[in-house]
Amino acid sequence: MIGFIKELIYRPLLNFIFPQICFGCEKLLLNDDEKICAECLNSLKKTNPQDLTIKIMKERFQNNGVLDNFYGLYYFENNGVLQKLLHQLKYENRKFIAEIFGDLIGNEIKENKLFEDNKLIIPIPLNKIKERERGYNQSLILAKRVSKILGINTLDNILFRKKYTKTQTQLNLQERKENIKDAFEVRNNELIKNQNIILVDDVITSGSTIEEAAKCLKNNGANKVISFSIAVAQLEDEIKSTKVEELEI
To answer: In this predicted model, which residue has the larger pLDDT, 9 or 119?
Structure first.
């Protein structure tokens, strides 16, 4: 009886006073459990795995064997819904956005049987100073949600940033690679030896961070390293765009 009254009176009253709106388009949500409406999620531009592997893999990453493959769920589009959501995730404490996309990534891997031989999930770490400033690492939240769906362990205390790198804003591709060079270290490499690893990040722009992290893991005994992210910037002009760069870790 109490539950019935709550649904009949209390919840509609609460929604009237504090309406639930979509964080993507700010339209009213009818479902209290939603944070992003289906229309916004359906508007995001899904990636083409073949394009990622054939075109962007060659364009973005050096042919040095440190990254075995990569996958991004959506293409990053400037001034779009995804850019808005990612900004809220990283700068407005909207951690639930990482949980939503972490579930989508996990289900994508599971349903399409991607990377079935992987045994560990590792998030791209933040420098401790930046993590204290933000209060959380969005890539760790992503990784834990993917881990829950796939039943694969997440190790968040293995890969560390050993130096504070300056922002990648206004740096060209080569400068980004130099900026992030030797930024990572592995502690207790026995846990990753001969392991196949999914490296999780929120956005791949130039690819410099992912590539450097993969190199560090490989140098410490990892067998394969495949990265997975929410979004991938498509073109060189997008990599240089300030709207993408503001999302750099």
So the answer is: 119
